[in-house]
Amino acid sequence: MNQTQELALSKVPEVTLAFWAIKILATTLGETGGDAVTMSMNLGYAIGSVIFFGVFVLAVAAQIPAKSFHPALYWTTIVATTTVGTTMADFADRSIGIGYAGGSTLLFLALMASLAIWRWSEGSVSVNTVATPRVEVFYWVTILFSQTLGTALGDWVAGSDRGGLGLGYEYGALVFGAGLALVAGAYFFTNISRVLLFWIAFILTRPLGATLGDLLDKPLANGGLAISRFYASGILAVLIVALIVLLPQRAGAHPGAREQDA
What we know:
Radius of gyration: 18 Å
Structural class: mainly alpha
Number of strands: 0
Order of helices and strands: HHHHHHHHH
Helix content: over 70%
Largest sheet: none
Shape: globular
Number of domains: 1
Distance between the termini: 18 Å
């Protein structure tokens, strides 16, 4: 690995159990935080999307020029993708009216297009290719689409309106948790591409967080616990900060960093 690649990789945290724990908390915070702005503050999905997209752009603008891995900056950018992913998915599913199935399909195609363009341009979607600002843009755009898709998937599985499957928040969380368990099993017991497994797991953590977030803040009549969105978001933010401080992260190669193809 050349010096440029090492520099780029040093901006990405090593994928450990702590990484996934913070990722799930971040996705749950994205759901409660996004809903707090669009629903509790009554700003609506369109305005909420504009606000959070602006935060996302600012976070990426700070992340890409950084010369080394900064946990607070990296996870701020991740949270920015989850909040804007929440509001964008809700805008597509509810305001535009294409429904959960339509929104999930559209976002899945956008995610596949992002990965395809990334691979066509750089020859791989493995994270070890994040060695230039251009590739890091691919990385964050792909993450943004994956987070938005995850929100739509969570709503599709848990919700009973707009063509949803109606499993509810608890069973929805169990479904996506089981999916993550299967990915973990494939990681430990098969030779399936680590790059592929990483992206599948990354996508699945988002609907898991979405269903958990909805379980926390939705009204009792809708199957939630009716916890204040602001209160829930504050607790989740404190937990994320605590994990970052108590479980120091180091820069490192993601699973599949030695693979050149996904």
